[in-house]
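Hi everyone, sorry if this is the wrong subforum. Our group has a chain we'd like a structural model of before ordering constructs, and none of us has done structure prediction before. Sequence below.
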Amino acid sequence: MFNLKTSKILISLSMLAFLSLAGISAYAQGVLEEIVVTAQKREQNIQDVPISITRMSGQWLESKFAGGGDVLELASTVPGLHVESSNGRLSPRFYMRGLGNADFTAAASQPVSIVFDEVPMEKASLKSFPIFDLDDIEVIRGPQGTLFGRNTTAGILKFDSRRPTEETEGYIKASGGNLGTINVEGAVGGTLVENTLMGRASFITQHRSDWVNNAYTGENDALGGFDIFAGRVQLLWTPSDDFSALLLYQHQDQGGNSASLFRANVFDKGSNKLNENYDRNTVYFDGGNNNPAKIKSFGVTLKLDWDVGNHTITSITSYQDIYDRFARGDIDGGYGCLFTCGGLAPGPHGPFGPPSTPFNPFASPFVVNVDTGGDQEVEQITQEIRIASNLDGPFNYQFGAFYFEDDLLSVSQNQSAGAPAFIVGSISEIENTTWAVFGQGSYDLTEQFTLTAGVRYTDDEKDAQHERPAVEGVLDPISLGDDELSWDVSLAFAVSDDAQVYARVATGFRAPTIQDRLEDDPVATIADSETIMSYEIGYKALLEKVRLNVAAFYYEVDDMQLVAVGGDANTTTLLNADEGVGYGVEFDVDIALAENLILSGGFGYNKTELNDKELTLPVGPMATSLDPLNENGRAIIDGNPFQHAPKWTANLQLDYTHPMANGNELYLFTDWKLKGKTSDFLYESIEFTFGTQFEGGLRLGYRDTVRNFEIGLFARNITNEHNPIGGIDFANNLGYVNQPRIWGGEARYSF
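Answer:
Right subforum, don't worry. Here is the predicted structure as tokens:
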């Protein structure tokens, strides 16, 4: 367990050890390739961008998603990045440098923005689009309010699809593994009309069989499976050298029994270790209809580029539509109804069987049956237009305008103890409209010094209408709005042709939030804007055998948006804390150990702290609070770390290719990720504060470089770790865990 002294030593040693790599003398040339990123909406060498960035591509992506994984696989794969979900595959939540949002509701806003093919995906359900046929993923840390707008106070994950090419090329890839896992992915692209029109079509289909037994209903293989199809079609029209138009259409259809599996009483009071009640292959659900989850959506994006003299005008228009989304789950994770059954559990083969057993681990004294779910529809429209210079002199710039509009319709459904049916609880419609103007410029002060500065003005408005037919009927509408001026300034100094140091100061803000899950008190469903001031210094070097990026950061968040989930009242409440503070260090390093052997790794340390002496929260009835309690038995959380903020993350990858005499290759890629102490709630407890966790993956195979095919084996969570990733404290010490080991074989043919 880290204390302040240990933390400072760890930071110092990390900085010292990896800054010393800059002194490595290397003589082999051309071992590490240049990495190009678009973090500042123009192509740049990653070493020249004064921002902490990690780029994932190639084997890195192939390995992580080999076993049918979704975007949650990115957790802890780069420094400072954490991803989790209590809603399964459909609603991932992202954290960067410790800053994120644990709100699971449909209208939740996140301080980490997901940008897919240059379009921000605002609602959580839009962030769950399957990962396939990507060129790269860029992880951009720190506030990005100038170029990307509000709700980017922590950073950005930027996904870029592979674009159409002139040459006809493509691939087909298939894999099969345990638990009935089947993945098929493919793409084909090339010239459709010579010198004028290119296209690319790609798809993925994934299947996993149900593999979790429901011991309460007596059903074997009742939950855990999924069926997914997603496709993307792109047309690139280039009628002249100075104009291009890219039309992109994408569609997804996901279904199955893959909502999160909540497991009742898997932590003993006073322990965060999984106890004998836990069995990965078994749950005890008397509700939830085996936790179904589905989503259907499509999106259309049109990008236009005009080269006008020394400038490029870009327009990006996008429409995204989730037209069918539904999820349902047994939230209490067990069975039993003390308040309606006199403390006896119902019969083992259905909720209406005769009482058969007295109190047991899956019928805790606090349990009331909670069976919740809901439907969602989301429409999102975005329009961006920007003008970027391409000048030969020391000064270049870009400026533009952005418009965003989305409409969320959420129908919440729930069943409580004794309820005879799955019933409608509330209906919410929330509209969000945002517009912004922005500009950024970069000036070479000397041959070594470069100054970059930007500014953005944003206006954000939200309007909500809630209806609770069974209680109050239509409630008074809620309207929130705010405007903010965000800016950033950075100064980079070129130590040499291959190394630079930089300093960056950036601000940003997260717009006001209205929750779609209405509580008894409407005030509990809103949160005011939060603002951030962030400071960062960094060092970047590209030697012949070593690429090194190191950054240290400090930030303060005013009026920090938080969500309090659970407690003895089982509420979900939005609130603002006076202040949140975070600081730490992170580094990425690639080392060419030999001509065909590359070792990559990263480490991120985050020290986070809530500062609000008046903020108190209820504690779960079976949780052991580590915080002092006030006279009302509520936890005083002043000084606590942020929720779901690992104290540290680490990752390691080894990529080896063995050339054969006939020109073909054997390859091996292994990757490992670790994370340190993490608190699941805003209050700290023994049961829901998790220690060090790790997972590893392996991919090895044979590649025929002449006939362009490869075959191989893969494994994810290769050591089959059972890692708790979250819990619910309102009724019992309930937890949910990571995915099991997935292993299998794969084949790929490229052309």
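For your construct planning: Helices lie at 4-19, 59-64, 145-148, 338-341. Residues 1-30, 338-364, 416-422 have pLDDT under 50 and may be disordered.
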